[in-house]
Write a structure and sequence with these properties.
Blueprint (H helix, E strand, L loop, with lengths): L5 H6 L6 E6 L4 H8 L5 E5 L7 H13 L3 E5 L18 H14 L4 E4 L5 H11 L23 H11 L1 E6 L2 H5 L1 H5 L5 E4 L1 H7 L11 H16 L3 E4 L4 H9 L4 E6 H16 L3 H11 L11
Parallel strand pairs: 1-2, 1-8, 2-3, 3-4, 4-5, 5-6, 6-7, 7-8
Helix pairs in contact: 2-3, 4-5, 12-13
């Protein structure tokens, strides 16, 4: 399984540098088109994307079939995600982690978990990500084995705990304050969401401008990750920005999202077709990923 998990293998090899893409629109042809562009991993976004549970299962299978690691970002704090056989305490993190079992049951090579606040949150997530005795993940899905080549059910059960990635998103003020404690848990990667992190520390990204305080917060997370031997990831909105963070030593770096790339290309092509190259250049400058106020557009 570990050999088939392209993202995990890359994170543990050499510099550990990987590049990925963000899928927000459903459709297996869409998934395969992105996967064939050469990325190491694709995040299937069920938090902010237009992707439901069925579409997630199909996307994971399509991406894995192209030799790319499917990673699912799960949504948080949704009561309908609770399974009938789980602890039903009124605790949002429990609602979150039980949907995470569904993401892993689809055959995802890892999960990205948003809205982490404390080390206790990550410990609960890790318990739900692992089969007993390390955790409490339920066993029985017939789907995930096929996403790792030829695997039997028994092989999946024995290898999954070591072969799947648990990635926590650092995007809250509380997570930043508790970063050392979070980094000391057994998570695989600290993944920075700069837009929400900026909002939550009072320094939002406006028109692509990142304040010094946000830069320092990102650097502090990276320092903690290095100290505790964790990989670091970050959401980027352009190839140039991704290259910048690669040069800074980050490991799991998004390059583009479908909902950035598609409208940007189509707008540019249409403007050029209308014959105004000056207008086209201005349009691209205004709408470029590096100038965005939000992670998926203006």
């Amino acid at each position: 399984m570990q050999a088939a998990n392209r993202l995990q293998k890359a994170l543990r090899t050499g510099s550990g540098l990987t590049f990925g893409a963000w899928q927000m629109l459903p459709g297996t042809n869409h998934s395969r088109t992105i996967a064939r562009c050469g990325f190491d991993w694709i995040c299937v976004d069920t938090e902010h994307g237009n992707i439901d549970d069925a579409a997630m299962h199909e996307a994971v299978a399509a991406i894995a079939g192209c030799g790319v690691s499917p990673v699912v970002r799960i949504p948080a704090n949704e009561g309908w995600m609770v399974k009938s056989n789980v602890d039903t305490r009124d605790d949002s993190i429990w609602r979150l982690i039980e949907f995470h079992e569904g993401a892993l049951d689809s055959g995802a090579h890892g999960i990205i978990v948003p809205l982490i606040y404390t080390a206790d949150d990550t410990i609960k997530l890790l318990k739900s990500a692992k089969f007993p005795p390390q955790g409490q993940r339920g066993f029985g899905s017939p789907f995930p084995m096929e996403r790792f080549g030829i695997q039997t059910t028994t092989e999946y059960l024995h290898q999954a705990n070591d072969a799947l990635l648990t990635i926590v998103q650092i995007e809250t003020k509380e997570a930043l304050q508790n970063i050392d404690a979070i980094a000391q848990t057994a998570v695989d990667c600290l993944f920075i969401g700069p837009f929400d992190l900026g909002n939550n520390i009072g320094h939002p990204i406006i028109d692509g401008k990142m304040d010094d305080e946000l830069h320092e917060a990102i650097a502090a997370i990276q320092r903690s990750a290095k100290e505790h031997n964790k990989s670091t990831g970050i959401y980027c909105t352009s190839g140039d920005q991704a290259r910048h963070y690669a040069d800074q030593g980050f490991h799991m770096i998004s390059v583009a999202a479908d909902m950035i790339a598609l409208p940007a290309f189509l707008t540019s092509a249409l403007t050029s077709a209308k014959g105004s190259y000056v207008h086209s250049a201005l349009n691209i400058a205004k709408g470029a990923a590096a100038k965005m106020t939000g992670p998926y557009g203006r």
